[in-house]
Amino acid sequence: GAGVSQSPSNKVTEKGKDVELRCDPISGHTALYWYRQSLGQGLEFLIYFQGNSAPDKSGLPSDRFSAERTGGSVSTLTIQRTQQEDSAVYLCASSPRTGATNEKLFFGSGTQLSVL
Amino acid sequence: GQQVMQIPQYQHVQEGEDFTTYCNSSTTLSNIQWYKQRPGGHPVFLIQLVKSGEVKKQKRLTFQFGEAKKNSSLHITATQTTDVGTYFCAGHSNYGQNFVFGPGTRLSVLP
After folding, report:
1. Residue A53 contacts by C-beta under 8 Å, 6 or more apart in sequence?
2. Do B101 and A91 touch (CB under 8 A)?
3. Measuring CA to CA, which residue among B18, B7, B9, B15 is closest to residue B109?
4. pLDDT in tens, A43-86
5. Residues of B with Cβ-Cβ distance to A91 under 8 angstroms
6. Which of A19, A3, A2 is nearest to A93 (CA)?
7. Are A100 and B101 within 8 A, CB to CB?
8. A23 chain-B contacts, CB cut-off 8 A
């Protein structure tokens, strides 16, 4: 597709269950970001992938959160043993990152995660 | 680590009034970007500023990047109801690092 695709769009899970959120970035984009947005709040950085470099995991809130990016394209964010405070919209963004003037982020529509 | 702040947090204006949001970084930025998020939507890129003191205009929107490259502002002239949403600034200290977003300014425009 032409844009960043995220799935599922909505996910309802029970406390303690594991969830996987998927992001398909725009083809050719080397940079991929995950952010979390709680209701009415700003964007909380989670993790950043750039090409073949080691990811910047500095924003992951706990060891229950992990992410991978296979083949430099699709990314999966995994949350283990979900807690109610994990409920939020999880946004993925990609960027061409071919130069300092070409860094703008293209966001997907997000996954609304609700932990009951 | 790098911190980006925005003020005000909320702004309610009457349609036709002007609006300004300010963005301040704890560190010098290589560039700064602005995004708009409509209610229920996702952030959409508006503009990028790179040079110290740079000013860019998009119709009724004027963006400025401070001389020290640590602050920026977005000014909307004669707001319209279509301007409703949350405006975020974002930047990073060095190219190649992740983007840090400000907390956003939520704009409401009363008709």
Report:
1. none
2. no
3. B15
4. 999 999 988 888 999 899 999 999 999 887 999 999 999 999 99
5. 42-43
6. A3
7. no
8. none
